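User: Second chain of the day. Same drill as before.
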Amino acid sequence: MKKLTICVTLMEEMLGTAAADKKIHETYIASKAEDAEKLEEEVAAIGVDGVVEKSMTIFPRDKDGCPIMWDYQIRGYLKESIGFLRKAGDAEGCKSFTNHKKKIDGTVFVQPRMIRLEMPVNDNEIGNCQRPLRAETAQGPRTALANSETVPAGTQLTFDVICFNDADAKVIIEAMDYGIFHGMGQWRNSGKGAFDYEVLNEEKISMQEARELQLKFGKAAAALEYEEKVRERMAEEEDGKPARRKARK
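Assistant: Same format as last time:
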């Protein structure tokens, strides 16, 4: 079993993927998460502001208000990248990594649960990216405006990847190499979210050590950290709904 500590540095700005409308996120996006128990935690992290457009995609926030990515988004990137590299290129590790989605689900884990996006000191403002979306429909061509929050180039995120099979570490490295060509976040096919990376540490660990890390930095720690905050927010919303309805009358 191996643990890789990886630091990603964005070469291009990255766009947020979470729906700003809490109800949209609750009823659709969070329901697609790998673990349905994550729903309340993720909805709470969206922190929807009343002035933000419902169609906008944003970054979830941690308890300090900093933008984050979820662990499963990194695993999603790995699945997508390995899928591409299995079809082309000289990535020998990926080519032999058959049934890659199930292997990532079952034997590759990312920590911590919430990965903070550390923006550059001289460029630490959340930006905005608007672009047209065009589609050919039965009624003819249609155009809509997509709107997303952005974090700037130079933003860094650091996380651990635990590989239950030592040989899979090579596959993870090949997938990370691909990030300079095809990054993370919305609109990545245009080059947004492209990144470079550095492996800060690579070490063998035992199952017990991996378990302890998961308890410290993984889902259990995140659930405990958010439990009270989620309950408070839900209680405030429930208390506020009757008052708002009455005011409208």
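The longest strand covers residues 140-151.

User: Great, on to the next one.
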